[in-house]
Amino acid sequence: MSLYYVQKLMYELNRDSRMRKRIDDDLDEVLAQFRLTEEEKSALREPDIGKLYVMGVNGQILMHFAALHGFSWDEYIAAMREGVSRYGPVKSGFYATVDDGEGGAV
Amino acid sequence: MSVVFAGVCSHAPGITGRTARADPKARQILFDSFARMRDALEVTSPDALIVIAAEHFANFFMNNMPAYCVGMADEYEGPIEDPDWLGIPRTLIPGNAGLSRRLIERVIQRVDVAYAEEWKFDHGIMVPLHFLTPRYDLDIVPVNINCQGPPLTPLHRAYEFGRALRIACDEVPERIAIVGTGGISHWPATPNSGKINEEWDKQFLDRFVRNDREALLSYSDQETYRDAGQGGFEIRTYIALAGAVEGSTGELLCYEPIPIYAVGCTVAVMKVYAAGPITPAT
Question: How many CB atoms within 10 Å of residue B41?
């Protein structure tokens, strides 16, 4: 589990347009620069927003990663919901789903 | 000079990014209130605007996370987010490195503050500026309080940071406006995005406009997380602002819960003229 590096990769991606171009050109080369498990690499490649959310990626970082991959607001919220139903509750951090997602506006 | 204007407002990215999806009546009240806040700001003819924000991993990450940081540059850029996603075009924002430096030199007498000569604004600063200085013609001094990566600074330190900022403002010749921006209760970037605890918000805002230091500092992070979500940690920005205008009360211009904006949308202005210079912390 290297959640820290999953988030660091996304943090750098959110800040740096050259990095965004590099993932378009050669995603595996970028992934190789971070200490990541195969499961994490696969979730980033897909991208499996629901799994990344359940792993505990900070929501503020994941929100932009999802937008970068073309998820509309509603699709992004739905992907997190689906992640929780498929993989279980959020494992780390403080962006957990509470009260079964009550109050969510979609 | 001193602080000539102080207020707080929401900064949720949905306000500009998902504008059309809100209830039109609530949205109008919010936008009218932002306009009133802008008028109140402009009438004081400030030389610079300090924005006390809680950024979301635009500049600072867990590899090197300051509890408090002040920008020290002549120019900033933003938004860091996709402009289409946020609904705010990318632009350059003027700063004043000299003023920042003089403020930092004074704040650091009381609070160990970090500084940054590069800063990319995220929605946490861009949304307030979009409404308050839409021509980007006022020098901005960005301030960040870490509300994202625990351990977080305790509330009483946020208040003291605000006091230190005020003392610094009192010691420089410029006319300074200060805006705090954050929370209040919200669960952004989760499936609960849109959940709002109105009762909690109203109690917090009552404490805030009365500038009741003891009541404002009485929340534990466990209680805030339970009642106001992880977004509630951003009350630190309001508490710092309260410290900056210690002794002044305020007026709530807007509190409209707008779920698609993911927050109870808040605009409040403090009556800074009522307050004399505050005494330095001992």
Answer: 21
CATH no. for residue B150? 3.40.830.10
Task: Answer yes or no: are the C-beta atoms of B182 and B147 closer than 8 Å.
Answer: yes
pLDDT of A1: 61
A10 token code pair: 């996304």
Domain that holds residue B120: 3-274
A28 inside 8 A of chain B by CB: no
Domain contains B197: yes
Q: Which of B63, B193, B223 to mutate to test the interface with A (most CBs of A within 10 A)?
A: B193
Q: b or e along B235-262 (b: 16 or more beta carbons within 10 Å of the residue's beta carbon)?
A: bbbbbbbbbbbbebebebbbbbbbbbbb
Q: How far is B56 from chain A (nearest CA, A)?
A: 6
Q: Which fold has domain A3-89?
A: Protocatechuate 4,5-dioxygenase; Chain A (1.10.700)
pLDDT tens for each residue of chain A, 106 residues long? 699 999 999 999 999 989 999 999 999 999 999 999 999 999 999 999 999 999 999 999 999 999 999 999 999 999 999 999 999 999 999 999 998 888 888 7
Helices (DSSP H) in chain A: which residue ranges? 3-15, 17-31, 38-45, 49-55, 59-68, 73-87
Domain extents in chain A: 3-89
pTM, two decimals, is: 0.95
Cα separations (Å) of B6 from A9, B96, B150, B160, B246? 37, 19, 28, 16, 11
Distances (CA, A) of B138 to B39, B45, B132: 14, 10, 10
- Chain B positions touching chain A (beta carbons under 8 Å): 14, 17-18, 56-59, 61-63, 80-82, 85, 120, 148-150, 187-196, 225, 229-230, 259-260, 262
E strand or H helix at B176: strand B176-181
Residues B33, B265: Cα–Cα separation, whole Å: 10
For residue B114, tell me if it sits in a domain.
yes
Rounded to an integer, the average pLDDT of B190-194 is 95
pLDDT greater than 80 at residue B282 = no
Helix axes of A3-15 and A59-68: crossing angle, nearest 10 degrees: 60
Q: How many domains would you assign to chain B?
A: 1
